[in-house]
Amino acid sequence: MPVLTLADGHGLAYAVTGPEGAPWLVLGNSLMTTQAIWAEQVAAFSDRFRVLTWDQRGHGASALPAGPLDMATLAADLVALCEALDVTGATYVGLSMGVPTGLTALPALVGRVSQLVLVDGLAASSGAAFWDERIGFARANGMAALAAQTAARWLPSAVAKRPELEAMIASVPLEGFAACAHALRGYDARAAFEDFAGPVLLIAGEADARIVPGMQALASSRPGTRLALVPGAGHLPCFEAPERFNALLAETL
C-alpha cells in the first residue's frame, strides 16, 4: 500500500483503484475504522471511477500520531493527498469522522471537490463529554472491549458482520483512537457546509438515533439538500447495507 509522507513527516497510507482519467471518488473513513470499511464501494464503483481511500492518522497502515489531534490536521491530510494525486472534480463521500474531515478541508479544495455525500456525521461537534467518556472507557478496558460494545451499537441489523467490524476496531491502536477522538471533541464546519456551491446528499442509517436528528437539521439548513435514510441500518450503512447504500450513491454520481 502506498504511503504519502506529509510535511510534518507523518506517513499516510492510501489506495487508488480504478482507471486513469476516470472521475474521482474520494472516500473518507470514520473513527475506529480503516479504509477497508469501503470495500463494497470500491468493488462497485472502481470500474468507472478513480477511487481514493486512505487511513486517517493512527488508523490502519497510517503512522501513529504523537499526541492529540485537531480537525484542522485531519483536514490538512486530505488536502495533501488530493494535491499529491492531482484530484479534481471529485465526489467526496465522508463517513462519520470523515464528514468533518471533508467539510473542514473544503475551503482548500476549491476545484478539487465538486459534490458531497455526507454519511452519518455532523458538521459541528456534539460536545466533549461523550468523547471524553469513550476515551476513558478505552483506556480502562482496552480496544477489544470498545470494539465489542461499538459493533453491537453500530450494526443493529447485521449481527453476522459484527465480528469483522470488531476485528477492524480492535486493530486500531488505543493512542490512534484517542488522538482522533480528541479532534471530535470540538469542531465547527457549518460555515463550509453552508457555503459549498455544489450538490450535497446526506445519507444516514435509520437506526442511528444519536445522529439522525442532527442530520435532519443539517439538511434543513441548506436549500436543496436531501437526507436519505437507509432502513434498519445503524452508523455504518455503507458496510451494513451496501446494496442499498450503493444504490443511493449511484443516483448522485
Automatic annotation (TrEMBL):
InterPro entries, sorted = AB_hydrolase_1 (IPR000073), AB_hydrolase_fold (IPR029058), Carboxylesterase_BioH (IPR050228)
Protein name per the record: Alpha/beta hydrolase
Key words of the record: Hydrolase
Q: Which residues form the AB hydrolase-1 domain?
A: 33-247
Does the UniProt entry include the keyword Cell division?
no
Statement: the UniProt record of this protein carries the keyword Hydrolase: yes
Give a GO molecular function annotation for the protein: hydrolase activity
In its UniProt entry, the species of origin is given as Pararhodobacter aggregans
One Pfam family linked to the record: Abhydrolase_6
